[in-house]
Design brief:
alpha+beta; 7 strands; globular; Acyl_CoA_acyltransferase; acyltransferase activity, transferring groups other than amino-acyl groups; GNAT_dom
Length: 162
Amino acid sequence: MTRVLDLRPATPADAAGIGPCHLACWQETYAGLLSPAFFAGRSPERFAANWAQLLADPATAPVTVASADGEVVGFAQVVPSRDTPPVREEELVSLYLRAAHHGSGLGQALLDAVLDDRPASLWVAEQNARARRFYERNGFSADGAREVDESWEGLAQVRLVR
């Protein structure tokens, strides 16, 4: 079966697809790191509503979506650094891809679309070895910064820079 893959800028109409994709990516990515209770109160509809609000705001930094056969399977976004003081001008705040598409090249295509080879920072779950290897292959390395997010059940994140 030939799949039609697409990478393009998100529009407000994409919120209905990005929302469920976002939650599913969280569930796949953080399943071994966060409890089922963490996800229990979250719904695809609420995620879609949040994305609708975000994408309707003209001040929102561009979001790129990846789709397969018309279904949103990933997304990525770069914003001005949120770190104080900033270690890089830009920060990759999201790059999520459904697990079924890992290794397909879509993750790399998303990263290239939103950041190319520019310097940037990002935060990644300390125990997310797959994501850390991906970013390391793309020139990122840990700079020693680490945060523990209590609202995420004490999940530790490390900052990567290039």
